[in-house]
Write a sequence for this structure.
């Protein structure tokens, strides 16, 4: 199977050898979202969720997920991250009963491979953590979409999503 970087000569999955690649500063930003009902929104705004500070826990969970992505995405390389951040932003339309939490993760490294998977994992795990901490107040929570917003560095160059799905 030639032409596929993640297959060996026998056609089986392999981790790509990055030992020959040049180190460069690489960044990635990803986004996810969580839609909640009015009751959960009020709990989050009032700080009355029974499990505690939802956003503080979701932020730490996202950063931990970024740092540990290679432990559960089989072909990802363990990467020494030089930075990771999670931010939240609300979009509220009470007339239409829309309460959306946008989650943005940003990850940075200096190394031979990119951090897109780390940024995506951080955003997704932050969203899942919000669900976990709010599910007792309502199961109709919706997660997603999760998407790559931008990346810099590497041989494929920079990428910037330009569409209405990116909300930061």
């Amino acid at each position: 199977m030639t032409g596929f970087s993640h297959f060996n000569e026998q056609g089986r999955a392999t981790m790509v050898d990055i030992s020959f690649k040049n180190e460069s500063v690489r960044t990635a930003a990803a986004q996810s979202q969580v839609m909640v009902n009015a009751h959960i929104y009020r709990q989050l705004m009032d700080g009355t969720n029974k499990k505690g500070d939802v956003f503080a826990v979701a932020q730490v969970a996202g950063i931990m997920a970024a740092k540990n992505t290679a432990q559960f995405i089989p072909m990802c390389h363990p990467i020494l991250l030089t930075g990771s951040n999670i931010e939240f932003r609300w979009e509220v339309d009470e007339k239409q009963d829309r309460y959306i939490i946008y989650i943005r993760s940003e990850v940075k490294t200096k190394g031979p491979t990119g951090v897109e998977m780390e940024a995506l994992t951080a955003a997704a795990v932050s969203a899942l953590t919000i669900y976990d901490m709010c599910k007792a107040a309502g199961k109709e929570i919706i997660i997603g979409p999760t998407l790559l917003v931008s990346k810099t560095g590497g041989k494929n160059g920079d990428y910037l999503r330009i569409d209405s799905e990116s909300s930061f």
User: Anything to note?
Assistant: The chain has a mean pLDDT of 92.
